[in-house]
Records
---
Amino acid sequence: MTHPHLWYPNAREKKRKVFLHVGPTNSGKTHNALKRLEASSSGVYCGPLRLLAREVAKRLNEANVPCNLTTGQEREEIEGAKHNSVTVEMADVTTEYQCAVIDEIQMVGCRTRGFSFTRALLGICSDELHVCGDPAAVPIIQRLLEATGDVVTVQYYERLSPLVPLKTTLGSFSNIKEGDCMVTFSRREIYKLKKKIEMAGNHLCSVVYGSLPPETRTKQATMFNDEASHLNVLVASDAIGMGLNLNISRIIFSTLEKFDGVCIRELTVPEIKQIAGRAGRYGSKFPVGEVTCLDAEDLPLLHSSLESPSPIIERAGLFPTYDLLSVYSRLHGTNFFHPILERFLEKAKLSPDYFIADCEDMLKVAAIVDELPLGLYDKYLFCQSPVDVNDDISTQGLIQFAENYAKKGIVRLKEIFTPGTLRVPTTHNKLKELESVHKVLELYVWLSYRFEDSFPDRELADSQKSICSMLIEEYLERSGWQQPGQRRVLPSLQKLSQEYDAPQLRKYFPEIDARSK
């Protein structure tokens, strides 16, 4: 654990040329790195979000550079492709590339996901490695790569368009204008603010937050960006900080505090800068960005944060490979994953440049799967799965999948989920429930790529996921203020009715008639 760079012999055989592209949001750093990727004979893009991986795959394919998409829940293979766009956890450290790009490298310091960025940084086997992110990551990246013998070049970028911190607050909600984005940090608050804005004037709102399905987030962002759309204001969480191209004129913080899963705390300098930086996208309708707050008491923190550099990242996340845990398991003569992981993390000695990833959620899953007659590798995979252990429905889904897999070796989706039972949510709680069902379906798809023969209903899970997203979009459509007689069938709903069985969709959407079919 003190020399993790030696875990990746393929990468160590090369003397990689590493280029750090660092600067604020909207500075063109990732754009330049992607230009190099496009020009390469083979390559990989590693991003923190599925939305980003999909966007880069689309960009490369449109530039006539065939590019596959690989995420935990998606595989899209393009004939003849020598490029891949992946979520960072899916980075392949055995394949050789001419060029690789790792985006948002400051996440190397993230307590839960940082180890995936460390793995990509140390392990990707490419002639050129382009690493993009916040300047705060430069010292730690340079220290980690001293041990690898790679040649490191740092290129600093300035923001391409101005960002103006306003000296006054929003004031009345009637001052909301086209292109505004109101930022808050809970689902309930998002819908409260959406209603308030829509009741105050001539604007309808798109919404974007983390527990919305990625497809729904993308569609909400697209409608906000579309000048022909009636949705010209955005209400969002910090999910807008990365992964979506948004034409925002002004960011308005409703608060500078958030609940982080442990306690309510002030936003950090990097969080404020990342969100505020989304205003005034270069080349958009709003080339000058503005940022302000609802509460005058928040203005000093907003202004001081925007003027401050992000704190230097001191250490990078690390997590043991399965091979290390397997050896440790054999040495201790046990197949129980929870005590093995707990003891390993306790005893591990690290170099001062690393910290052990926060494995609290993984340990909760380990306690569940240790009750079942499963092999160590199967337990490891279930612990790596994207289950939300703070969501009861998602956790129950995982337990059912693991139990059925242990008992029968095959998990049919219909055993725990009945297609045809989903409905358009009528309340906030029903919406939350449907978002949780979507997580369970995503979990099934994720598992189907790891236990291919044992989770055979991927196509059914995918189709139900799409219906889930449409039902959530329909809820968002209905929750918007509108004059009587303005109901309309969503274009995406019409598209879905062509892809799937229209009579089945009529169960969920009575307004689908013969014409929309």
---
Amino acid sequence: MAKKNYGQVYNILGWGDPYFTVNSHGHLTVKPHGRDTMSGQDIDVHSVINEALATTDDGDKKPQFPMILRFPDVLKNRLDSLHAAFHGAIDSTGYTSRYQGVFPIKVNQNKAVVQDLVAFGHGYSYGLEAGSKPELLIAMSCLTKAKPGAYLVCNGYKDADYVALALSARAMGLNAIIVLEMEEELDIVIEQSARLRVEPVIGVRAKLLTKIPGHFGSTAGKHGKFGMLADKIYEVADKLKKMGKLHWLKLLHYHVGSMIPTTDIVYNAATEAAGIYCDLVKKHGATGMTTLDCGGGLGVDYDGTRSGSSDMSVAYGLEQYASSIVQAVRLTCDDNGVPHPVLCSESGRAMASHHSMIILEALSAIPEPQDNEDTHHRLLSKIQDLSSKQPRTAHSVGGGGGAVDAMHSHAVELKKHGIEMYKLAKKLSKRVTGDASTIYNYHMNLSVFSLVPDFWGIGQLFPMMPVSRLNEKPTINGTLVDITCDSDGKIEKFIRDGVTLPLHPLDTAEHGGYYVAALLSGAYQEALACKHNLFSGPTLVRVESSGGGGGAFKIVSVELGPTAEEVIGTMRYDVKNDISDVIEKVATENGVWPMVEPLMKKGLTTMPYLNDYKSPKTTF
């Protein structure tokens, strides 16, 4: 009799298709080539972990948890799929230009990721986007290996040094385009171009009126942080025209925010931007324009619902996204009699998210005590009472500043009221779950702040599930608690409105290590990681398909995370003078140096996380 597969408890078919599934052993597996993965090519994640743990680095150090598993074959498949989507839309609609994208380095600056994408995208003339001087230097180096003509899009606020560096990239033969975020940046470009005697290629960033809802919409609209409204863009074009430099202007860029939820918004934004592009060409004489950069926004369906109803979901796939842009730009340009521009996008999240997962080691599981005072009946009564006490609309005598102050005060009271309602509702939801069965806090070898900072910072949810035992019914309602000394270091909110995660009883004696994977986590988390409690980054494991059957794979590299010594050094300590020598001196004076020395050395030369932890037995 076939064993039951409990992968769908975690909605793996929703968010995991076509890269993740559960095999007959009840193990999480990766389909490295997506829908092109052949039978027997699936990679067993539990086997990868065990093999990685058995390796050592050049100094005979064994890997420690937490770890990130990278699957570059998935990264390549995502890139190929994006280009196939745009090529299909272009071919089917009679669009007369091409698609040529870039990867925004800020999404994942890791050397292997950036270099892989440049190599995988060589045939597509795939380029890079930089938003700072360090990212620009990375891009300049990596794009020397790219196909000539690949874009180097230079975004972000710029000083003279940034602009000069971008111009030097053009002097090197790279296709660097300086995108103006503000009108005054043009003066910097003019000055540095004359100084270096390098002619620039420039773009302008449009501040569109099209907006998206939710957290990610804050970077768009007329009050957005970046770009210029259409009238200012036209002033830039007119200024260039008067100088006889309008031929510098080649690109129009826009970005309405990350995680665009629906194709209606994708279409509307592309239509609005294409209208500005056409006006630049037809009304302001910028006939040398070549490219419309649609920015980021191609989302990832983290919760697998395809609903587009929250910041965790989008209601489309790659094909629908590409088709919406191509159709919108084609129709707008045709209506205005303007040649179709090259289409560029800065799709980073959608490229990088799927290719890596964070592996968390369970250390212990402790039942959460019930709060007998706050029964679900009492919590419901508190919610009903609070909802009947909406803050009154503030009134003030007269107008002017008094009215503004009153409105501000009312807004603050509404916010406080909403927060209290949310806290009670969250507590009620957890209490209902706890009444049905005991909730266990699974202590994980994890720092929320270092591994999943977006969860802490903006409430980003990632699909999570056990790596093994998925042919057994997960009977425990668990939350994940990290090892930092911070009450925020806890994961108690999950996709699909979950307040607990279904887990298995922790029994390392019978089953060995118990690991939970945080998936779709390849975008932003490493770049945003912080060093709270001086916990560092994870061990990095690069896993490639061997190309054969039988689930064959090869671990190409295992790179241990930063040691305690390296992390301490980032806080401006001279580890030898400020730490080691001081400890040695006092320990020697107290006659305990022979005991302290090996302990100090091990503490400095290993990762800060728990190592070889013996899990206590828990009765479930």
